[in-house]
Amino acid sequence: MTESTARSGHWRHSAAVVGLVGVGLALLFAVRVLTAVDGDATIFVGFGEDAAPTREYAEEKLGPLFLRTGQGHDGKYFFVQANDPLLLDPDLNALVLDRPLYRSQRMLYPLLAGAGGALAPEAVVWGLLVTNILALGAGTWATALLSRNMKLSPWWGLAFGLNPGVLSEMVIDGAGIVAAAAAFAAVVLMLKDRVGYAVLLLTLAALSREAMLLAAFGCAWWLWRQQRESRKAVMVAAVPIVGVTLWAFYLRWRIGWDAGVSQVEEIGWPFIGFAEAVETWVGDPLSLGIGFMLLALLLVYAGRAFVSRELVGWAFIGFVALGVLFTEQVWRNYFDITRAVAPIITAFVLLIVASRSGSQRTGVRL
User: Does residue 190 lie within any of the structural domains?
Assistant: First the structure.
């Protein structure tokens, strides 16, 4: 066995340890939350007192729930989807959603959590939590491998597991952890020149959160501009679009072409959502400070990514544009905006550390 081969194997094992630490931290976090509510896993789902249709749907299947104030959070919709991820009975399940086409487009996380619809509702509640714990570990492992590729310690992989946006997703059974883990793993595989597997993961990431199409476009741009691989670039961009489009057609076949309500409420004119959110932050120094810090992070990240030749920078640069287009309902609560731009937070940490260590490289294989 050559020295380089032995070192490569050691790096992989080190990254796996970091991934297991990520799982352990997620488990500790989950146990702490569950202990406070006598083990009621519905606390993670985010059922809301005022979200009557979804609450009544869940109470019929589960009995008493842990209810949050107001409308609750996204996990309640993923619970509905996980019970019927293929929309075999859209009248019973999909119509409980506030925006059926928008919600159902994010199919991978509930499909995994509900084992394709095979689990009972009581098991689905735990499936949502366990899936996110495992995805957090997988994303941490992938980020640790990526860190080694950038000649950094694999422990920087915890920039994924300790990402505030990732932890916020876990608190509400959100789909962003699965999506981000698949995207970061795709970046690792891209650097190993396993483009086919990377494309598969990018497609799955986009089927968990459609905004991950931006990661596919970023990877394609890097292949075209930095690696001069035009054919691979086209495949990386095109296949996820086809996958998302095919699922969208399937949804419309099951639900109908006109769901009766606006499906996208989170995108508007550049910086308008941020400006409107500033008005709501008056008198709340913490939210005001975090809001401006996140806006600065987006802009600084864009500059760093442009001067860097690292794939991780280019892969998520599209989230900068997305961030400035978000409406006030996303920006006003740092809990939501950190979830929305979570990939940038992890990628930014890696770029900054790599820049300071003087170790930026391009296309080095693991």
Answer: yes
